[in-house]
## 1
Amino acid sequence: MSQSAAVQDAVISATDGLAALVGVLAEEHTVIGPTVRDGAIVLAELAAAEELPYGCGVELAAGRYRLVRRPDAMIFAHSAGPQSWKAYLHPQRERLWTVDRDARGRLAFHEEDGEPPAYAFLGVRPCDLRAVAIQDRVLGGGPHADTAYRRRRDRTLIVAVECTDPGATCFCTSMGTGPGVGEDGPAAYDLALTEVLDEEGHRFRVRAGSPAGGRVLARLPRRSCDASTRAAARETVTDAAQHMEKAMPPVDLRTLMSGSHDAAHWDDVAARCLTCGNCTMVCPTCFCTTTEDVTDLTGDHAERWQRWDSCFDLDFSHLHGGPVRASARSRYRQWLTHKLGTWHDQFGESGCVGCGRCIVWCPVGIDITEEAAALHAVARGSRTTDEEETS
């Protein structure tokens, strides 16, 4: 993306325009977007715009997800589902290399370096847009970049969609990651859509944020964005921000986490946490992996695979003599303090984007915003007690 890229502002219809968009993207890309499957809105390969979740919404709560029918034909008026785009850029399981032994006992190693698919992500939420940017920094940059991730990312075109109907577990506003994609600074998207449905019709405001996005937009049936559509689009995003039901406590979370390591509240969390790792699996920024080696029965062929791992796994911190974090308390504390605190030390920003997936898909309904608020209350109470004793 380039800050100097010419930004175009247009309107396309929710029928012919969206169908044309999917068709143009599919000419050179594998289009991935939301669709209804198995009682949820999931990410999958799309062959046509008709596969998008027209008229579908979701009801969310801690530990609860329900697909519902909307009273209108809105397409993207639903919250993030159980998957994130991480599943395509940083796959759950991938082969790194193979090795074969010939009849003379010589070994031949073969690294997995094939050309990855060229993806077009359709419907990337602002929170997930930030998550992709975080993964770019974690996996795609630095002296030890994941070259496979970088190859996939370089071939990916992103069509973002601004949020107009946040779920009950969303808190992106308090994290500064949504519900809009923003109009200032370098664009992190190729195209940005804002869905509008009013008396003037069902349509999308479309902005190009890169030359590649501009070329796609130029091929769509479109018209210049009028003032009423622009105003309606901005209003829907503003309303979404004002109706966000959850929020992180308005404090420096990095400082809060660093000062809460010995808080008794961790015992309360540990009494509820199953250490199942669901929160890390659905989190769009968690990146930890492990490797496993497999071989055939003859021993002449072996493979090394990389797969997702979780800091909730007892063996994740295993060293000689046993795991470093043997208790549920220590493992949950590691996850939360890293996500909200020490992530800043490593990568210069928070590891949480406010998508709320960890709340929805926790089987016991642990809410990250409530746990942060509880730690803040403990810290504030401790300060009050200290001040009273001093006086």
Note: Residues 30 and 336 are 35 Å apart (CA to CA).
## 2
Amino acid sequence: MRGLTINDARTGQVSEQDALARRFEEYRPHLRAVAYRMLGSISESEDAVQEAWLKLSRSDVTAVENLGGWLTTVVGRVCLDMLRSRTTRREDPLQDRDGYVRLPDPVVTGLAAIDPEHEVLVADSVGIALLVVLETLAPAERLAFVLHDLFAVPFDEIAPVLGRTAASTRQLASRARRRVQGAAPAPDADLVRTREVVEAFLSASRGGNLDALVDLLDPDVVARSDGGALRPSAVRRGAGDVASNAVMFARFAAAAHPVFVNGFPGVLAMAEGKPMSLMAFTVKDGKIAALDILTDPERLARIDLGSVLGD
């Protein structure tokens, strides 16, 4: 067999790179899902996945038996660095004092079947309420919990990313798990029943029926609103306090369009053809346990109204 010519060698290199790129694309939806849970930001998740591709394209992975696992830990390391750098770039992602709140980026879809890309992104009940709690974890805790509890990565593979022992990494995940279980209610899986609760909430809001609103809310409900830099933000706790905002809810409810927010029933309110608010509901045992409202004009403007509203 003759040796490779220069052109043959170049063709071989290109073919190997193309093959690697094709393999990477197979893992991209999974990697975006990992990054989204780590960062709570769609744009930053895309950046993290792209950085993982750059690292892959510059690495010799011929001896890597589990490329998906290797890429998962690479994305985890990239996200860890991004989380650690946030405090030097901006305020904490979620801060419920001094009237400032920043909710994670929502994944908004219409009532038709969710496209495969978004389905992977929000699978496994990654509602807004869970992402809010993940935002409160320390970066190392978040990595240990997300990779192990949400993606079943063994602790001995997570430990080198954190520069810790497997036992220490296990402790981090355990601490994070307790915080998540205590603060993030597991939503009801029955989406039909959840939609009924949401519709009842909207009806009570439109009618200004305070008693009905209180009855629909969990006694310990938490309502968070994120208005961005131009609109006020707030956190309210308890059924009575949350229901007292019936006037505000009535304004949103009057222009409500049913949507899915991170795979769960939610509401997009429109005014003059533009989104005015996005409401994400966490329903637990038939009661609204968390209500997250995005009114930030800049972030609302990123919603693809055509695909969401079916225009």
Note: Residues 1-9, 88-94 have pLDDT under 50 and may be disordered.
